Amino acid sequence: MLTVLRHTIAQNRWWDAIFVLYVTAFCIDLIFLQHGRIGSELGISVRQIIFLLLMLTALFNCFQLLRVPLTTIGGLLVLGLVIPMAWGALGVANGNELRHVINDANGHLFYLLAFALLLGFRPDFPSKMVMGFAMLLVAFLCTISLIAYFYALIGVEQANHIEKLLREGDYGFFNVFEDGRPYRVFLSSYLFVPILFCYSIQRLTVNWRTRHAVDVTGSVYLVLGLATMIVSQTRSLWVGAIAGLAIMLVYLIHRTSPRLIAVAGLVGLCGGGLMFLVAPQFLRLADIDGSAGMRLGQAVLLFDLFMQRPWLGWGFGTVIDIVMYRSASFSHEMDLIDLLRKIGSVGLIVYLGAFFSLLRSAWRQYRIDEFSEEVGMLLATLAVVFTVGFFNPYATASIGIGAIVLALVTVEFRNLTLLSPDAPDCSQR
To answer: Which H or E run includes 174?
Structure first.
């Protein structure tokens, strides 16, 4: 992003430079500020300010909307406007408090940021720059987390201090044993860690495929991602990493040599095995009395509520008296089942239809390009977000939707290059 910023300034493209700064601030906010409530005590949060600035700047480039496929426009409008407005209205009609409806539905508005990103940049913008910058920030976050973890190993005072900082800032939590030794650290934006893991596998595979050399950056990202998932002791991240890796390998099988895939798969399996062998709380996988039992109870109750209103659902903002770890009584850990309860079968069909329309761009790129890293990352990101989102409230929150938007935008940027009149014929390589 700094390279793009210097380039735009050198060409006196000050509007583009300002937009790059906005996007940089958005990525930093999404990954480091995490919950997005910084500044909310003043009436408007930092994340909301960045959102408004990005949307306003995009309005000045709305004439570029013609270069965005109609399927992408339709899918984003359905996900970002139709679903939150229609089922928000249903929630109000059912007597839900307006503030709960707004807070419950506003995460979906982040799909509209894809418009801002697509319209704000020129067609010559490097397609992989946004996702690459985001992964760099995630690697930095992992580094800080690991430093804090090992710092806490020094003594009880250090561990308690870090735990207090995380709890008070609502950034996550830092669990300790009775003697004060840490065993688990979790941050809200750790959803990006399994995405970093998949990104590193792809980098290593592509670099070996093109240059027959080990990618140092990819290797560092792989180690940081694995180590962070180990100390997180979060089972959903492990499952999400496995799902993302599986989708990534299936995609790579069609685009590169079987031998290379075998090596990438072996690296991924070894990494996954390392998580289970090193993790001191591996037995949490068999825990049905703690968080797993709580989630199972949630799933049963939420599905029962869905069966009571299977067609249109309950709408956004419905308060449910249920055991959970979150303070918001209208949003629950079993996010996808909760979404089904909110929007019903009709909403689910609309939701899936919108996603399939977004994936048409990826399908076109898949058919044109010999090996599209952008498509691979989009598929892996979707697998991670929806797998982790099945057990945690990410799939309908700004963090999860923000990750999807970043991956989707890289695909669309790449399409602008591939589908231009002077684009090379990648299918003949």
So the answer is: strand 172-176
Beta bridge mates, 185: 174
Question: What CA–CA distance (Å, rounded) separates 86 from 83?
Answer: 5
Q: What tokens appear for 135 in the block?
A: 């992964």
- What CA–CA distances, in Å, run from 207 to 31, 108, 309? 26, 36, 51
First to last CA, the chain: 30
Cα–chain-centroid distance for residue 98? 27
The ranges assigned to domains in the chain are 1-60, 75-120+287-420, 136-285
Give me the chain's average pLDDT, please. Answer: 78
Tokens standing for residue 211: 């240059």
pLDDT digits (tens, 9 = 90+) for 90-126: 999 988 888 888 888 888 988 988 888 887 766 666 6
Q: What is the C-alpha separation between 8 and 20, in angstroms, rounded?
A: 9
Closest Cα to residue 52, out of 101, 112, 5?
Answer: 112
- Residue indicated by tokens 């290593």: 204
66: pLDDT confidence band, cut at 50, 70 and 90? low
- pLDDT of amino acid 80: 92
Q: What is the pLDDT of residue 288?
A: 44
At residue 97, the pLDDT reads 87
What confidence category does residue 43 fall into, taking pLDDT thresholds of 50, 70 and 90? low
CA distance 264 to 376: 14
